[in-house]
Amino acid sequence: MSKLLYGVEDKPPVLTSIVLAAQHLLAALGGIIAVPLVVGGALKLPADQVVALINAALLGSGIVTFIQCRGVGPIGIRLPCVMGTSFAFVGAAISVGLSGGVPAILGSSLVGSLVMIVGSFFMPQIRKLFPHAVTGTVVTMIGLSLVPVALNWAADSFGPNPNDPGNLAIAAFVLVTVIALVQFGKGIVSASAVVLGILIGYIVCLALGMISFEQVEKASVFALPQPFHFGMTFPIAGIVAMSIAFMVTIVETTGSFMALGAATETKITGKRLSAGILCDGVGSALASVVSAPPVSTFAQNVGVVSLTGIASRFVVAITGVMLILAGLFPKVGALIVTIPKPVLGGAGLMMFSMIISAGIGMLSRVEQTKRNSLIIAVAVGCGLAVTVKPELLSKMPHFIQEVFHSGITMGALVAVVLNLVLPGREIADEEEHEEEAAPQLARETA
């Protein structure tokens, strides 16, 4: 029996959809603006250029989110995906930017996106490397890797008062509020628990005088897209670095799609993976043109689906429209940025923990053999190692750091390799997935 309130193809009422879409917007916004802020700070860009990067990132994320959810021909996985910039690109972007500036980052991203576009045609073969034991491990690792992000938000680790007990109290208050709304709320109240929890936490912080509207006052009302605003250059070293980052992102995005499949009760076939990865690649090329960093599927929004039971891709398509508006109307984005990090941390901890729960549920259905236990234990252990102690790789060659810095990528690669080398190799049954997914795919193409 389905646990979803709205399935992938369901269309909730318009007002309900807008409220539900806002949850995904709030869950993703911090991650979308974080990369331009980090890269801009590392390159010591002027404030106006950082603002231009942020607006472009919101616009690019919105356009590609809409395409990924609704689909355009063979492009788009047609699931509730929110797109944003993965931190897998940050290291490469900074190294390229320090030598060639933003034009080199954008040019290298444009060429590097071909790696993802070409790779999308091999996803049916890659899908066979993800049997249930590997998929469950990757989904669990996604949740475990995101929990530290929520904890940093909760403690406001990078703010003026990191680890202040007041920050933790606000995060705990929001967490308890979301739990209460999910458990005891009915209908739209339960379904919109995340956005309601954040709204209540925001009001509390406003009453405590913790929110400043200085950024909102400074932001312009309207800003047109600026294609090729920074220009483009194509350094060979930069193209190589970004191409490696795109290869890493293919692994991360595959894991995110697997997690989304579990959350939306949808079979993820090789064909469907191809459509999703192709959208990531084409979307990243488009993002470069509008002067935005490359994009990939955000795993944190899988937690919203798992928590609320709202799997409608049409709801998240509205999130894409909201992101576009935030990019076109900077005051909107600036207002959302005023949400205190501890408020996001409380809600984020709940959402990301739900991904862990989904992964554990998948692993509970895996046959409990010595072989599967080894794959799960070693992959999760290695993934947690670089998540909890990222400095482990600080003395390693730059290529190794680029590939293995993410706990998601480390866990996924270790699980895939162990499944290949240990006796009794498992291969995901693609034909079975295709058969089970056929009715839904037929509805989508009708």
UniProtKB/TrEMBL annotation:
The chain crosses the membrane at residues 12-38, 50-67, 79-98, 104-122, 134-155, 167-184, 191-213, 233-251, 314-337, 343-362, 374-392, 404-422. Its main location: membrane. GO terms for cellular component: plasma membrane. GO terms for molecular function: xanthine transmembrane transporter activity. It is a multi-pass membrane protein. It is found in: Cell membrane. Keywords: Cell membrane, Membrane, Transmembrane, Transmembrane helix, Transport. InterPro entries: NCS2 (IPR006043), UacT-like (IPR017588), Xan_ur_permease (IPR006042). Belongs to the nucleobase:cation symporter-2 (NCS2) (TC 2.A.40) family. This is Purine permease. The lineage of its organism: Bacteria, Pseudomonadati, Pseudomonadota, Betaproteobacteria, Neisseriales.
